[in-house]
Structures are given as structure tokens and as C-alpha cells.
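Something for you to look into today, if you have time. Could you write out one complete protein record for me, on any chain you like? Leave the record below and I will have a look.
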Amino acid sequence: MKRVVSVSLGSSKRDHSVQVEILGERFEISRLGTDGDINKAVKILQELDGTIDAIGLGGIDIYLYAGRQRYVIQDGLRLMKAVQKTPVVDGSGLKNTLERQTIHYLAQQGMLKNGCKVLMASAMDRFGMAEALERLGCQLILGDLMFSLGVRIPIYSLERLQSIAAKLMPLVSRLPFHMFYPTGVQQEEPLSKGDKYAGYYLGAEVVAGDYHLIRKYLPEKLAGQMIITNTTTAADVELLKERGAGSLVTTTPEFQGRTFGTNVMEAVFLALLEKNWSEVTAEEYDRMLQKLNWCPRVVRFQQETQQAL
């Protein structure tokens, strides 16, 4: 049996473990949250190194992207360097393929149309998805400054994002990761009561991106928006339904009632390919997705409510 572990800076309350068969191989897939303690994460990574088939880094990025420019997050790099033997990933390689395909799939199904308004919590975290949305002709509202840095300035194009990133990222990339992304107990904090960015949520037809960033400023009442994200628990799904989301699209497969992050699925792919991260191509990820007969999971909340009535 192959073993994959996601070591996350997120809350340990979201820990989960499953045994599944993927493409004929048995896997034990686990998540270990460190409640934002980066030193604890380093220790766990060092203990796991050389004892399992692949490691995913959760709740943190090693790389963020704006156009062709890649920015290295120093805290993420520290975690990656703690692992010397076992292949380790942060999910960014799979995001660039799987999440582009998610947008293409939704467009083919008529669920995303040219001109629809999309609020992206952070395009740098999901640049492949953002590019696919822009090419589809969607009107983008990029929340990178708002959701990560608390600066109330929306960005309306990827070209503008690239210009801003070139100025800010040399500094931001050196900051402790918890300063611009919820880690540990921050992920369990009560939702904001002020509806700080409610107008941006309600003015969009689609809200896309990292779940914890979406949750951070989730309004008390949505108006049927489609939510496109990846890592959700049963409680997360129920929260979105209660808040009035129209539908939920998750990009990664569901195992026993929850979806794991892209870092987990990318680690699974590395274990199947028996390669290091730097050796895997986008074409190989695409082939693996085709073999899995993958497609996004779509839950329609409004339809469920109507049927219940």
C-alpha cells in the first residue's frame, strides 16, 4: 500500500485519513494539521522523510504566480527544504492543469458563460484558473490585495495583477505566511459579522478560489452564487448551503465525505508515477486525470432545496 501524507499549517480539527484504491493501487491518504506551528511542521516532515511515498504541503504555497513570473514564498521553501528523500509538492503543478480543465468543463456544460462576473479570492494562488476564466471572457474581480493583505483595492485584470505583484511580492514573499493567509486557529475563527466585502460577493455570479480565503469574508447571506473551490469538509458544504450559495464546484475528488487539497492529489500522482516533482510534466498530469475519468464535483443547493419543498 502506498502512503501519502499532507502536512498542513491548517487546523488539526480538519485532520482526516482514508484508504482508497486509485488506478489499481491501494493508498492510505492522511492529513496532519499543525495549527499554524511551522516548527512543528518542520519536525513532522523530517520524521516522515524517507518513510512514505509522497508528501503534500497543505495550508501554504511554495510558489505563487503572476503571468510567467513565479514568486517563492520563504516559509514554504523552508518546509520543502526540510524534506530530503521523499517527493514533496504544494499542489501548484496540479492547480495549473486540473483547475484550467475545471473551467473548460463548466463552460462546456453551460454553467459558465462569456461575460459572467467572477470574484477570485486570490488569482496568484490559482493563476491557471484565473487565466482560463479570463480567456473565457469572464469579468474578473481579483481579491489578492483585499483577501490576503486587507487592502480594499479590487484588481480587474491579470495584466494589472502582474504589475502590482512585481512591486509587492519581493517584500510580501518574505513575510510570515500567516500574515496573508489563514493558518491554524485562524481557520476556525467565527465568520466576520461586518460583511466587509459583501458587495463584491453579491455583485458576482461566481466566487472562486481557496476555500479559507472565501470563508474569511463570507457574507451572512449570498444570492445563489456558484462557489468554485477545492478543499471542503461536510461542515463547509453545509455552511455554504446555509449562507445561500446556489451551487458548489470542487475540483478535487471526494473521499468519504470530503475533498482533499490539490497538494494531496498531486502527491498521489507523484507516488503513482514514482517521480520527483521537478520531473513531472503538465502532460503527465493531464494523462493521469484522463485515466481517472476525472470531472469536477457539482452540488446544486437551490435544486436540493426545491426538491425538499
